[in-house]
Amino acid sequence: MTDLVATARSFFEPGKGILAADESVATATTRLASYGIETGPEMRRAFRNLFCDAEGIEAYLSGVIFFSETLLEKGDDHVRFPKSLAVRGIHPGIKVDLGKEPFPESPKEMITKGLIDLSERLVSYKKAGAVFTKWRAVIRIEGDKLPSAQALHENAKRLASYAREAQMAGMVPIVEPEVLLEGTHSRKKSRAVIEETMQTLFSMLAEHSVDRASLILKTSMALSGDRTGKKDTPEEVAEDTLAALMASVPQQIAGVVFLSGGQSPDQATDNLAAITKRAQEFGAPWPLTFSYARALQEEALALWRGKEENVPAAREAFLARLQKLSAVLGQSVERMLA
């Protein structure tokens, strides 16, 4: 029987984080097109292969989240991605939600779908090699109107239902209630919404008897909205992010991973460094790491541009960013041991 608690804790090995490579077909197509890369199934496979088959990633990654399409695909080594990662000690995971739809009671807000056949899909994902799962909800801020209490409650209920199903299937759940960067809100508003979101979520997780010890939380950082023109300092981000989490997240969870959510690679790295430093000063009870997508991929994709001859340079940039993030986490461990 799978020891879910041990598996969940293993994501937080010193200096390691999670690559979010779970873009849907539509998102991956848009992402590649933005770098002038042609789209299609083979190019999406090559996109995943660029990162997953890079030599040495096992020193910096504890897990990779896939989209369902990628779970069954093979790298250039003719080995399915989940197997090639597992033999290197990297957990393969799977995004299990089926995207967003408008919330009938508040059409400007979105709720996440995918519960109807979830239990059956989890069985097939586990058979394909996935050992952990992820479900994302999006929380929009708009003045004092959004998020609505109804949308927060419905997204939290679905996150809790999913997490319970994943644990029953013998898989670690990552719950991701992402407070979106888009908007004109202040950093303080972001902090307040993160806190309210987490309080709602963990109340619902308790109602659904979800085991906290084998649960991983993926969260946004507290940031000023992208239309404010305000650039928060890493110290400001760290202060408000940790304050929100300390006030609302129970200590029993396996750990917290941060999403980059539209930040640049340097911004996401600098903010993570400040957060891990502040976490030690706060006495945060859970381990912290990253679960980044664009902040890990951006520099590599700009070099790769879909051309085979650019793969070595692109992978070098990817590894360099991983090394920077690992160093940030390593410094945190050194401070804790000092």
UniProtKB/TrEMBL annotation:
Pfam families to which the protein is assigned, alphabetical: Glycolytic
UniProt GO MF annotations: fructose-bisphosphate aldolase activity
Pathway: Carbohydrate degradation; glycolysis; D-glyceraldehyde 3-phosphate and glycerone phosphate from D-glucose: step 4/4
Enzyme class: lyase
Enzyme nomenclature, EC number: 4.1.2.13
Positions of transmembrane segments: none
Protein origin, superkingdom: Bacteria
Record's keyword terms, sorted: Glycolysis, Lyase
Family the UniProt entry places it in: Belongs to the class I fructose-bisphosphate aldolase family.
Protein name: fructose-bisphosphate aldolase
Lineage: Bacteria, Candidatus Kaiseribacteriota
